[in-house]
Amino acid sequence: MSSGPTHAPSPTDVRVILPVEGMTCAACSNRVQRALSKLDGVASANVNFATHRAAVTYDPARVGQPDLEAAVERAGYAVPEVPDDDAMYQRRRRRLRNDLLLAVAFTLPLLVISMVPAAMFEGWQWWAWALATPVVLVSGREFHRNAFVNLRHGQVTMDTLVSLGTLTAYIWSVVALVVLGAGTFHEGMRLRVTGLPEVYFETAAAIVAAIILGRVFEHRAKGRSSQAIRRLLELGARTARLEDGREVPVDELTVGIRFVVRPGERIATDGRVVGGASAVDTSMITGEPVPAEVADGDDVVGGTIVLTGRLVVEATAVGEQTLLAQIVDLVAQAQGGKAPVEALVDRVAAVFVPVVLAIAAATFVFWTWQGLGASDAIPRAVAVLVIACPCALGLATPTAIMVGTGRGAALGVLVKGAHVIEAARSIDTVVLDKTGTITAGDMRLQAVVDHGADLAAIAAVEDASEHPVARAIATGLRERLGTEPAGEVAAFQSLPGAGVTATYDGIDVLVGRPALFAERGWHVDEGIDAARLEHEAAGHTAVLAGTAGSATAVLVVADTIKSTAAAAVDALHRLGLRTVLLTGDNARAAEHVAHAVGIDDVIAEVYPQDKARIIGELQADGHRVAMVGDGINDAPALAAADLGIAMGSGTDIAIEAGDITLVSDDVRAVADAIALARQTLRTIRSNLVWAFGYNTAAIPLAAAGLLNPIIAAFAMGFSSVFVVTNSLRLRQFRGLRAAAPGRREHLERWAVRVAFGLLIGLVVTTGVQFQRSLLPGRVIEVTAVTERLAIEPAVIDVSPGEKITLAFRTEEHGEFHVVNASAGDHAGGHDEDEIVGTAVPADTPVRLTWTLPDDPETIARLRLRETTSGATATFVVRP
Question: Which of 238, 371, 600, 752 has the most CB atoms in a 10 Å sphere around its CB?
Fold first, then answer.
């Protein structure tokens, strides 16, 4: 859920990440979040169930970290003193492992003596009590503690369902054994009886063991889904070798210090090459497999690997200022955030558990009203509680976001937050900036049409500008002149999207668009304008330049289209997206570029400050717009768009510019970003459908008595494991830039899929067979006469191997046994001949369920005997 801030965020606010221990479901994280948000001075609080972390932004002048920890503890949870997330992960892993070992050690023998007739002995129910107690009360203590804490706060959660289900089965079993004499009436499951006081110790213990087993698998899978941050942190170098040969920890590096990197080593921190040249593997940052060539003056990123030559690097950023640290922080924030769809999950979870409790109570009342005893109605109510526990619901969204954002980071796609993934769902139009996005941004002066221009003055004025076109003109003119301009530039003014104006040694100089010259009233003769139009028609950028009121030159600048641009646009089209080229360049040049790469529409000659207006107009027409730009000049448009995608390059990343930041300058990463966001959202949806629909569909089965509580517990655990495993499939997302998977990788993937499919099939088949074994067979009504117990009909027609249920009601105490008549039919010897049997108290509706032998001759020797009266019934094989 989302909680509003108690005060407006300010620059002095502090952001802290707190580990939270004891959360077992989405409702737990919601309660912790509410507790933190209520504190005066907290601007925002976001608690993530999947990562077990709380991200809190607060005003340190009004509230402190001890206050935050106290709020978490008041909510019933703990803030452990652990050094990092991995330590917390290992701590919970050990606790789950110990609880599971204890549960398995006691549950396995309990299941044997409770469910295997040959293993039963006199008084086995008392041993079952002894074996079940440590499982239910020790291994299951977390369920009961959390349920009690929730109840104390007037709330119910998933733990409430588990705790109530297991304690109900356990407490009823104790009452049935100690008060109702369940161990006296019959010998348990030797002949299953409906209507008698039963003990369900094995059910209570098996539910606890099954759910803990599911949480062990879930915890392991969640650990795999959160590996992205750990892997990013592992990419950094641990030590650096200084120029004098000393090796020092990376933490001791400062800006300006120089260090040496040899082939095969990781660059210690962000820096600039001051000596040597090499190919550098930047794939861990950009997601691209092609190494980058660097030499003197080039920037390099800490954590990347030098492949060939030796480099001397001067540190330009250390610690939290490095690109890798920024990426780690961005991924952590994205993984800790909540997508808007989770608001729906939170609302559903808030009402789901109370509804389930009501259904369980109604199930018990209904079956009791139908004539079943409490001993038979309780397992059905318990099955409803257990199967309905929607633990997977709390994992459906955060695990997919964790894996998706982690995979994005590995591909150089940095997602700002979970809300971005949903924003990508409805995008139908992608607006692309031209320079630096579709083109390389490496502008070069191609030609000069000189009508008596003062090239030195023009070069000097352009040199004062930071615009890529101006830099290209200044560099090109200096190369043509062979000397640096010696005059003085004054009154320089940059006119965004139009050009520049200044004076050079007192002479007015104007460089820019024709509109700027017309606005200033400067003369442009026909020859100059014709030359401009000719070069623009060829797809080049043509800039007018002049001095003293007249245009005297046309400066022709060309930019190269990126080799990957056409493939990127094609990928966007295959995603069903409309593409628009938005640029301040002239229309002819823009149309030339758009045609070359296949872009649908062109909007040209747009001033930077007007780009946001264009985005707004597209949105007003009903379009959902993604804007792709360089993250600096396009910042207003990026902010105005429904989805802002900022192109980055090396260390020059505008982290705050867009919703998605691309570390690479390869425009194909745009398609990768949108495709990954959409696939992540599809995974979230499939998780939610499974997590909610699976439990909801199974509730009627449990209420109808068609789902054993033990099977329900395993099914519920499997639901959580399935959701996390489904999210892990996002790690296989490759994108356009990754190399195609090889034959071996294909085989490995299919082998894993087949193995997983077979495992699911085995689990489902085993569960179905076990559940079928617990269902009643063909019902045969038997009349029990009350004055002297007798059995009618005297002949019971059956089929070999058939499961039958003998239904009758007694008004006197009696004992019924199936015996083998060939060993002697004397009244006192039936114990030696007994196959299965039970004692029946007076005035009890009874249903005896038993599966007959497969051999017809064996069936012919069987008798159903009531030992008090000696009355018998014969089984005969139907023709």
Answer: 600
